[in-house]
Design goal:
By secondary structure, the chain is mainly alpha-helical. Helix content is 75%, strand content 0%.
């Protein structure tokens, strides 16, 4: 073989090796670029999911805060209802004590008054009429009649006689 042919084969081999090296570098570069593009897409998706998760977290925090406010309002209303209930019970107790004291005073006045009837029936009717008035001096009745509180003959036993006293104090 001639020297020229050997040189030509060597040059061709070097060019071929050079082309293979350049081709391999180009392929590696394309793979690297492809991986970079894939990594960018994954990072973008990760940012989107992170943003979505942050939105969901914020919404959950808002909902928890609303629930806490509603719970606090409910507890406040419950406490107010308890206070009102206690106040109503105290007022009812005070009213009952006041009513009992008034009955006692009426009983003492009736016992001291020589002109008062012994039964106190008329006084009870008058007091009942005052307690059941509608605020305009008129008794509250279903039928609207004023004689609803008047004794019935069947209640009196005998027409025109006083009903019999119920307690020993009323018998005096």
């Amino acid at each position: 073989m001639a020297t020229g042919t050997i040189i030509l084969i060597v040059v061709a081999a070097v060019v071929l090796v050079g082309l293979v090296v350049v081709g391999m570098r180009a392929a590696r570069s394309r793979r690297t670029e492809h991986r970079r593009e894939e990594a960018r897409e994954l990072r973008g998706k990760a940012r989107e999911r992170e943003s979505s998760a942050e939105d969901a977290r914020a919404a959950a925090d808002e909902q928890a805060a609303r629930a806490q406010r509603v719970r606090a309002e409910a507890e406040e209303k419950e406490a107010l209802a308890r206070r009102n209930e206690i106040a109503a019970q105290q007022r009812a107790g005070a009213a009952e004590r006041e009513s009992a004291a008034a009955r006692e005073q009426h009983d003492r006045a009736r016992a001291a008054d020589p002109d008062a009837s012994d039964s106190g029936y008329e006084e009870a009717v008058a007091l009942d009429g005052d307690a059941s008035s509608n605020g305009h001096g008129e008794p509250r009745t279903a039928s609207g009649s004023a004689d609803e509180h008047a004794p019935h003959e069947a209640d009196e036993g005998v027409a025109g006689s006083e009903p019999e006293p119920a307690s020993p104090e009323e018998r005096r």
